Amino acid sequence: MSSFESKRFDSPDETRSFADNKGEVKIVNLGTGVVGHVTFEPGWKWSDHVRPIVGTESCQAAHVGYVISGRQMLKMDDGAEFEIRAGDVVSIPAGHDGWTVGDEPCVVIDFAGMANYAKPS
Fold first, then answer.
1. What is the largest distance, in Å, between two alpha-carbon atoms of the chain?
2. What is residue 83's predicted lDDT score, i.e. its pLDDT?
């Protein structure tokens, strides 16, 4: 029999903070999935604020998400660069760095890459 499940980000199952208070990810676990509400503050950069937590050279999570607000630049390990911004639905492969652009936080709902994101190794 199927069961209904509903959760809210204002009472997440887990919250993981980035280094230097440059943002956080609120995690909710639904069935077999993990969804994250991620806030990347101005000045946030993956290589400065998440790499020290996880210990990899680049982000090894693949992401599928929706950008609620703000902008972010992404640089893939092969050198390709992309900008994402409010209103974009994105698929980002593993192997990238990213940083917030401008003075507004970049807020993203991530449906795929949050199970181990910013979790100490």
1. 48
2. 98
